[in-house]
Write a structure and sequence with these properties.
This is Apea-like HEPN domain-containing protein. By secondary structure, this protein is an alpha+beta fold. It has 2 domains: 146 residues, no CATH class; 152 residues. The chain contains 12 helices and 4 strands. Strand 1 and strand 2 form a beta hairpin.
Length: 307
């Protein structure tokens, strides 16, 4: 049963929040998301993965709430503001969406977010009812956003939306942030949206290039790109370079595993069934995850120490 805190319809009562209340909010969020999606898809919900800041805004009406995030934020926090007098204007009262209310407060210099702080749009509750309702609507908003965004055709998606990438079936937000390479992001964008639009032939072609690109970045971090020995290296050249590098612990089993992934890429055909193509894409995706965690992250640590 929800506590009085979760059920209170008076936003003023949230002025005296403490971290115990914040934990209660977070626990409710976690519990409800488990009911909404399978365990493998839990990362489509932002607060399951990263800390947030919850804002409770008291205004001339019912008040509203929303959440923000900052890349690298280490813990959850909350803020409460009473703008009852400041929002008693016709301009504010005609703003029916939470986003427009936030813009009004920012334009008036009343609400100031940190430079890198971003609003999680799906969390915005334009009309505050209860804390429980706020969380319920946030979860529903995230769930529907993912289904909508990932159903768009690849030709309609020009730039990577990192929040949507995070909310894909596979958790790659951290990877894209750490690698921070625009070409890599563009290649991954092509794969992801091909995959989610069931254009698996396109997705597989893109993934082959992505894996080779990540291998190059790993070698480059160690200063071993010269081991490729070719202006246009092939998959065989990448595997050979990994075997020769004194910094990379790449055994025969690893070589065989990634060789199979490249062979999978090469075996793709327009005549494959959709199920077979998807399964092969999934296998390549797991290969990319392994490459990133086992080989790229250590190479980045090495590069950082050299500086």
């Amino acid at each position: 049963m929800s506590s009085y805190f979760m059920q209170s319809m008076d936003i003023h009562s949230y002025e005296d929040l403490d971290y115990q209340h914040l934990e209660e909010l977070h626990e409710y969020y976690n519990t409800e998301t488990k009911k909404t999606a399978e365990k493998a898809d839990q990362n489509i919900f932002y607060w399951n993965e990263f800390p947030v800041t919850i804002y409770f805004i008291e205004d001339v009406s019912t008040g509203f709430a929303f959440a923000t995030y900052v890349d690298g934020q280490e813990k959850d926090s909350f803020k409460y503001f009473d703008f009852t007098k400041e929002t008693d204007t016709l301009d504010y009262k005609t703003r029916t969406t939470g986003k427009k209310k936030i813009q009004y407060l920012q334009n008036q210099g009343l609400l100031v977010l940190d430079e890198n702080e971003k609003v999680l749009e799906q969390s915005i509750a334009a009309m505050f009812l209860t804390a429980q309702n706020f969380i319920d609507q946030w979860i529903i908003g995230e769930y529907y956003k993912v289904n909508k965004e990932l159903s768009k055709e690849a030709k309609d998606l020009v730039y990577i939306d990192s929040s949507t990438i995070h909310q894909s079936k596979f958790q790659f937000r951290e990877m894209l942030t750490n690698i921070n390479d625009e070409q890599f992001k563009a290649e991954f964008s092509e794969f992801l949206f091909g995959y989610n639009n069931k254009q698996f032939f396109l997705a597989a072609s893109a993934m082959g290039s992505i894996i080779e690109h990540l291998m190059f970045l790993i070698l480059d971090n160690y200063g071993d790109a010269r081991l490729l020995g070719n202006r246009r290296p092939t998959a065989k050249n990448y595997l050979s370079a990994f075997e020769k590098s004194k910094y990379i612990q790449f055994n025969d089993r690893d070589s065989s595993y990634f060789d199979n992934i490249f062979q999978t890429r090469n075996s793709f055909s327009h005549f494959n069934t959709g199920y077979a193509l998807k399964s092969q894409c999934d296998m390549m995706l797991l290969g990319l995850t392994s490459l990133y965690k086992r080989f790229y992250l250590p190479s980045k640590v090495y590069q950082a120490k050299k500086k």
